[in-house]
Amino acid sequence: MVPRGATCAVLILLALACSKKQDDQEEKHRRAPEVMGTNWDGEPFKLSQTYGKVTALVFGYTFCPDVCPFTLARMRQMYAELGDDADQAAVVFVSVDPERDTVEKLSQYVPAFDKRFYGVNVKGDALHAAVHAYDLRVRKGQSLGDPEAKDQYAVDHTGTIFLIGKDGRIHYEHPHDASVDTLLKDVRSLLEEGT
Amino acid sequence: MLRYVGFPTVLLSAVLACAFVVTEAHAKTSAKTAIHVKDVKVVAGGGGGPGAAYLTIINKSNKADKLVGAKSTAASRVMIHETVDEDGVLKMRHAKSFDIPASGKLVLKPGGRHLMLMGLAPEVKPGTKITLELQFQNAEPVKVTVPVLSPAQAHADESKAK
């Protein structure tokens, strides 16, 4: 016969352990901060609308010819490798250069990789907030091309690829040049885990 | 210190179309210093957007050389650039030249050293070709003619090369 007090103590400990596990999970995988803007198709976009899918989130700009096209090309290959599972995934490209990357320009850039990709223009304070929330560093870089042309400049920016689970939490952060195999492994893991 | 710096309000009038890639058809050689150029690729934005050229230069002579410039009739300007990764922050920078060691090679590849093509002609699209002239400190210029590919094709090329 187990004393009633001992049973209660065990239940309380179990409850505390579960709570602790949940806290640890929340501590380990922070919630992906919201990003709000306009998608390349002109529709309003909220990152939270992709919750329930496994999302790859990247920040970049279309004037960048050297890195961003290759990151998106790898995403395109990742989608191809996922096959039918791609429907359970999302790729979100957020411009850190909203003045030049108008919705119109994004509409001619992002869908060329895959029409299912989001290409988001986020303006002003909302972009500022997202940059801070994702611990990014973004700064107007060197003038490029014609020194007299004020619209030809680089944008220095953090190239991290954020992989967000179905739970809306950031589970993995990879460098911009992470291989398709690396991304696929983690995306498939998140798809299978149901998170 | 994490910081976001605002951008000028200037809007780019030209619209950036999908990125294109150019790769060389044949390797070319400059006899004077035995400069050999191969594996040329260019990733570029259409509609007047910028592009980036990648290539390998092999120096078969025992004298070092430098890649000091490039030009193309398909671009208003070609510049020597390097993307550097500083603690996860990607920065694109001008460079005056790239060294080509004696009996060595210079490799320009995505995410690092590249040539940036500004003001690409609107007709530069996948399936077309452009000519790129490479200029060296010592060697005679080398011209290469390269067909245009999509970024996905370029990525596939990169994957195959690994």
Q: Which helices and strands appear, and what pairs or packs with what?
A:
The complex is a heterodimer of chains A (195) and B (162).
Chain A: H1 4-28, E1 36-39, E2 44-46, E3 54-60, H2 68-82, E4 89-95, H3 103-109, E5 118-121, H4 124-133, E6 138-143, E7 153-158, E8 161-164, E9 170-174, H5 180-193
Chain B: E1 17-23, E2 28-30, E3 35-46, E4 51-59, E5 65-71, E6 77-86, E7 89-94, E8 98-100, E9 105-108, E10 113-118, E11 129-136, E12 142-149, H1 151-161
Antiparallel strand pairs in B: 1-3, 1-12, 2-3, 3-4, 4-9, 4-10, 5-8, 5-11, 6-7, 6-10, 11-12
Number of helices of chain A: 5
CATH superfamily membership of chain B, which one?
Answer: PCu(A)C copper chaperone
Which overall shape of chain B is indicated by the principal axes computed on the Cα atoms? globular
Physical arrangement of strands within the biggest beta sheet of chain A: 2-1-5-4-3-8-9
Q: Can you write the helix and strand succession of chain A as a string? A: HEEEHEHEHEEEEH
| Elements of chain B, N to C (H/E) | EEEEEEEEEEEEH
Q: Structural class of the helices, strands and pairings of chain A?
A: alpha+beta
Helical residues, percent of chain A = 25-40%
Oligomer: heterodimer
Number of domains of chain B: 1
- Cα end-to-end separation of chain A: 41 Å
- Summing up helix and strand content along with how strands pair, one would put the structural category of chain B as mainly beta
- Please estimate the helix content of chain B: under 10%
Average pLDDT number of chain B: 78
CATH architecture tag of chain B: Sandwich
Work out the radius of gyration of chain A. Answer: 20 Å
Q: What report would you give on this structure?
A:
The complex is a heterodimer of chains A (195) and B (162). Chain A has helices at 4-28, 68-82, 103-109, 124-133, 180-193; strands at 36-39, 44-46, 54-60, 89-95, 118-121, 138-143, 153-158, 161-164, 170-174. Chain A is α+β, with helices and mostly antiparallel strands and 195 residues long. A seven-stranded mixed sheet of chain A has the order 2-1-5-4-3-8-9, covered by helices on one side. Chain A has a two-stranded antiparallel sheet with strand order 6-7. In chain A, a hairpin with a 5-residue loop joins strand 8 and strand 9. In chain A, helix 2 crosses helix 5 (180-193). The radius of gyration of chain A is 20 Å and the shape is globular. By secondary structure, chain B is mainly beta. Chain B has one domain: Immunoglobulin-like. Helices cover 7% and strands 51% of the residues of chain B. Chain B has one helix at residues 151-161, and strands spanning 17-23, 28-30, 35-46, 51-59, 65-71, 77-86, 89-94, 98-100, 105-108, 113-118, 129-136, 142-149. In chain B, strands 1, 2, 3, 4, 5, 6, 7, 8, 9, 10, 11 and 12 form a twelve-stranded antiparallel sheet that branches. The termini of chain B are far apart. At the A-B interface, helix 2, helix 3, helix 4, strand 6 and strand 7 of A face strand 1, strand 3, strand 6, strand 7 and strand 10 of B.
